[in-house]
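Minutes, project check-in
Item: structure for the 213-residue chain
Input as provided by the requester:
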Amino acid sequence: MLKSVVLALTACAFFLFPPLSAQNTDAVPDTTSAADSVITFNEIMYHPTKDDTSGEWLELYNQMSINMDISNWRITGGIDFRFPTNTTFPANSYLIVAADPQTFKSVNRTANVFGPFTNSLSNGGETLRLRNNSGRLMDEVGYDDKEPWPIGADGSNVGRTLVAVDAVGSGVGETVFFVRGKEASFPFYPTEVPADAGIVGIVDHYDIDELTN
């Protein structure tokens, strides 16, 4: 028995579409309070080499063309971190939240680093959530240490992070198409964007019909 799937897309930046959803199947998305993401999770170092949790960190990206006041915004999940008062996130830029911010800055020579956070990122996968100072969900991401996530990020000697890019501006809780490998950077050509996965389409709805031989 075969199944045909009819999909309707509200946005699409590329035409090669592998699996249907980019969400971690082991994580439960917060669909009851989901909001459009203006600041998103961009990169996660969840399992450094030698199981050194002090080397854990994550990166956020401000997609807006204006500076954002993220005072008292909070990251929850396996870790917990609240941004201090008077924290401004510059437009179209990145910031790091690290378990050991001083060590991170000394190694990477990066100024926009916050932390430390409490607890540690799970080596087996979990869901991280970003909420603003009113408790509104701004972004969430579920990651895993097995397919379709790259296993090279799971404590390997190269110390890789998980890198996911969004080419279409998808919101929290939406069903999306994503590509992996070199195709993940195609929507940004000719700019080279290092990425493990790229969101290239938003699914508006889909219908599944069973086909018999």
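Outcome recorded: The CA atoms of residues 47 and 154 lie 5 Å apart.
No further action items on this chain.
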